[in-house]
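Per reviewer request, we include the raw input and output of the structure prediction for the construct analysed in the revised manuscript.
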Amino acid sequence: MVQYKLYYFNARGRAEFIRFIFAAAGQEYEEIGFEIEQWPEYKAKSPLGQAPFLEVVENGQTFQLGQSLTIARYLARKFDLAGKSAEEQAKAEMYADQVFDLLNEMVKVHFEKDITRKIEAANKLFTESIPNSLKVFDNKIAKNGSGYLVASGLTWADLFLADFLDRLREKKDILLSNAPAVKSLYEKVLDHPKVSKWIAKRPKTEKYLYQKPQNFD
């Protein structure tokens, strides 16, 4: 029997879409959440001195992975959520990398201390970067006919995109109004029986690490 343990900060950070993968796969796992002040204890246990990280125990052997995208790719392959062919797997990773770029841009906005640069960066994110990427995603989804980013159906890239969109809060509906295929994908992911079950029971937190700045309207 394989045991999975996911270690993460108690906030809406980079571990959330990994939980989506576990949920979509119907795979049980143990969550070990901790606060910032507890990090030194867990840092010593982590493979790269970073969080989140994954621990896999099988046949008495322990295997650890850091880096959220690496963890996601590993789990997606294990749970048949990576794509049905090498080409689909490559496409899913390409789309996920694009979402990751958007997330990193959101992180930079969040941590920018200069208010003028913060507002400028947020404006670029919400009026250029995200809309441009959603337009590309929308065309790909509409063209392949599955309702998802690749033709064979749901992959971890769809789950990652849905999680990212969920972070946009009140801006999400405005942005999705020009991307109907992406909006449909987002709704399908959240309506997925196993994913919706997880969403209903997941801890409620206002500690979004990567939300838009309060001064951006």
